[in-house]
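Follow-up to my post from last week.
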Amino acid sequence: MLTVLLAVGILLALSLVFGAILGYASVRFHVEGDPIVDQIDAILPQTQCGQCGHPGCRPYAEAIANGEAINHCPPGGQATIQALADLLDVEAIPLDGDHGTETAKRVAVIREDECIGCTKCIQACPVDAILGAAKQMHTVISDECTGCDLCVDPCPVDCIDMVEVGVTSKTWSWDKPQGVAATSMNIIATDRKAEVAH
Amino acid sequence: MQTTNIFSFHGGIHPPENKAQSLTLPLGHPSLPKELILPLSQHIGQSSRPLVSQGEQVLKGQAIAINNGFLSSFLHAPTSGSITAIEERVIAHPSGLSDLCIVIEPDGDDNWTERKPLNDWRRISKTDVLSYLAEMGIVGMGGAGFPTQVKLQGAHKHPLTHFIINAAECEPYITADDMLIREKTEQLVLGIEVLQHLVEADQVIIGIEDNKPQAIAALNNALAQHNSTIQVAVVPTKYPSGGEKQLIQLLTGKEVPSGQHPADIGILCQNVGTCVAVHDAIYLGQPLITRFTTLTGDALKAPQNVEVLLGTPVKHLLDYAQATHKKISRLVMGGPMMGFTLNSIDAPIVKTSNCILAASKKELPAPAPEQACIRCGMCEQVCPASLLPQQLLWFSKSQEFEKAEHYNLFDCIECGACSYVCPSSIPLVQYYRHTKSSIREAREAAVKSDLAKQRFEARKARQEAEAAEKEAKRLARQKASAQKTEGKSTATEAKKATPPAAETKTAILDESKKLKVDIALAKNKLKKLQKQLVEAQENEHVEEINHLQLQVTEQEKILTSLEQQLEKMATTPAEKSTKAAPAPVNEELKKAKIDVALIGAKLKKAQKQLAESPDDKELKANVSELEKGLVQAQSLLDRLTPSTAAQKADMLQKASSKPTVNDDLKKAKIDLAIAKAAVKKVEKALKKAEELKAPEADTLRQQLLEAQQRVDSLEKALSNPQTQSPMTEATESNASTDESAAKNEQIKKQKIASAMAKAAINKLKKRLAAEPDQAESIQQEIAAAEKRQQEADALLAQLTQSQDTM
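User reply:
Got it. Predicted complex:
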């Protein structure tokens, strides 16, 4: 009987001790905010375009943390979906076409002689990438432009073009080799000889 | 002179050297080509900025482009002639893309600009010598084209133990450095002395492979003549001993740590070509405008080394070396291991082009098809950077960038030894290059998205701060005005107030105060806006007028709604509390109503009970009592209601009449002011017209009459505040009175209208393309928009015409 009581007592004491430690730890190492939202936000492309239906990337990150689908971000494209799927340990699904399609990187360019200086695009730009004043010509700081499209619709004279950012010799990158499958027909040595010999 | 210890590095291969064929002929000097194409980006870092413009005449050695930032370089005219274009041309780049180039048409005279050698380089400060080298456009000639002055500056961070001159030239086919050493031994030694003076290393070693006996002999000879302390280290032939890090390991036994530069361990490397270029700049005052290049390959009848002007098209050199164009299956710039295929023979020679390899099909066959990795491990054995190529291949194939980086992908020097030995002919280097550029892209994207995030958040914070500031100002104003009125009201309150009603009274007072403050604010704003509107009308700003008009009407709406609220406040609860009598009356009224209802309910109940048991006397008595009470309550209620009703009606009238009258008065005054201004203008215009005896004078006179009539009517309206004249009418009259001004305004308006219509058409057309199923409706819309645009255009034309005639 005594042993039983002793065992119960010891377990009780242990549980109290560990409970106290855990309780202290939860206060001492308390995490402010939701770290998963930050991680999701870091993956999103930060174009702040609102194509996902949220006012910016962080709100969408919060929505994803609360269970929204991860395929609502066209600027991020499949790469972002893959990264999100890896982070959240869910299946990578194709991009939802309702929110737009993945396009090549673009920047806004104002046809400056047509601009009437209405400042509407300046107000629409989420990253302050448009420069200008009322009744003065506006222009886009292309390095800061995220290509979100948000300035195109407000323009009353339709003088903003979305121009694709072409590849220059500085931004060019090597192609990925086609891999084994592409040339698996030529495995036998005689095939290869036929290719090489002449 | 004395030989140093030679160490070894991991891996390496021994491909067929193929160096003999280009050394049979002596150094060649090709003729001037028809044009020289000089890309603005011949080095690592920012492209240079052109200093010349199209059509300008330049002299040989004249600077034609200036460095653009820290990591950039100068560019000089390789010969005299004229600038025919600054345009996009195909450049020597693995992508085959075009880049901005300066194109020079030589005049054939080869006139030098004034050359200023830096003969006193030992006496002047080292930074001056470095900036002189920068102005001479000297970059690393080994392959990467790193601006030399930047590299030398970086070497000052740590005291240098070794200064290594790279003459290894390990890649097959290439013999340019070999030939350079043979031809320009003196210059090379002098150039090394200048560089040694600049970096002050403990030891200067020339590293050279043992397959260049003539060059070694020449070097030893020259060094003996100079009595120099420079050592020559002959290293065994092994690819890639000419890699910077590999040569350092060979000569010093030290390994450059991952992610660091040789300068971090006190070592500096320079190519022999760079040293000769330094000599030419310092002693002869010649900028970097020529280089040694090997022309080789089976497709050339006369393979040789040439001293060639920068910008010479590859085609010109191929012709010079008697190329059989049919035989060329692959044209490679650089060696067969690390070079890249040129897509166009129009690409020019740049500062880093050490070899043109015109290979026949037999010489450089198309790469065999890639097969599965058999995990033989040969790639690991030959890797000079001691990496695990197989692991890197898996990570590259599966895009696991983090793991690839963890396995030090960025230490790969892309020498191609692994691909060379791979029995499955896997293009390993291409995989690594692709992965490296993907990782770089991802990093750049991350930096950019961070920046976008920062800017987005800064914008949000700014907007919030603006809103908060506005709110704080509003609150402050409200408080200030509230304190003022409170001071007044508390005094009156103290006299009048009765204890029970005090609480509700203050609450209501507070609210009404707030409303009053709001109304005052709104009125203020309205006044301001109206002032602005008048100004704008005088100055004829169409857009502003429209905008202001909208604001004015909105403000008026707000004001009236506020005033209505105040009225309500004043009529209902305020009345109850401010005057001592009506409040209790109201309460009594409520009580009486409740009493009536209660008694009525009780009566009903009692009557029901009575119906069930008609004999109960007690119940009967109860019912009669209740009936009496009901009558009493009813009479009380009747007495109370008329008095309150009368009071209500009275208050309503008082409250409502005043503000509206005030409002109308203001409006009328403003209208009047506008109309008067208009009259003045028309008078002016009339005077002018009369002076010029213009045909418009009559119409103007008529308009003046009209405007004056309007002023009269407005004055009348002002004296009689009941009549109203809407704002818009006044502005219309203003517009119609001043003809030329109004026309200007209208033209502006029409221009905007037409531009907007155009934009609408464009948008609709886009939509049409996007949604073909709604084509009909959209087309109708387009037609409507086009009509609008035409109207606007027609009106615009009319207006401009009439203005011109005026």
